[in-house]
Amino acid sequence: MTKKKLFILEDDVITAEMYAHFFSEFFEVSIANNARSFRNYFKNHTPDAAIIDINIKDSKHDGIYLVQELKSISHYHTKFIAVTGYQDLKSADLFDGHFKKPIDLDHLNDFIRDQINKESIDTV
Q: Has this prediction a pTM greater than 0.70?
């Protein structure tokens, strides 16, 4: 069976690698650590789900801006999940879900899989 595609935008390399290691058992994983890599990836790919770190240190734009920008250009069926260290998430309605750090990866994995399966059921 072909694995679903998961994209991770996380500026902390160690955290990104930890996420990739965990999720690679369940998904085909791609990672970006900055806004430029995020934009380049989405020019040629449409993952089933994307974990988006809201606070990207090396960019003048945060994860919210990047997802808004992407959605304004084209309609993606990608499920966008925000991760943040802050309790209150601005533009929460832009995302299909959001998680506060530190994240329970098992819970996040279950949520992502449910979101992807929900999309599959809705389109049948």
A: yes
CA distance 98 to 64: 11
CB 56 within 8 A of CB 9: yes
CB 94 within 8 A of CB 64: yes
Chain centre to alpha carbon of residue 53? 7
Query: 59-79: per-residue pLDDT in tens?
Result: 778 898 999 999 888 777 899
- Number of Cβ within 10 Å of residue 64's Cβ equals 19
Which CATH code of 3.40.50.2300, 3.90.1150.200, 3.40.50.150, 1.10.3470.10 fits the domain covering 4-122? 3.40.50.2300
In eight-state DSSP terms, residue 71 is H
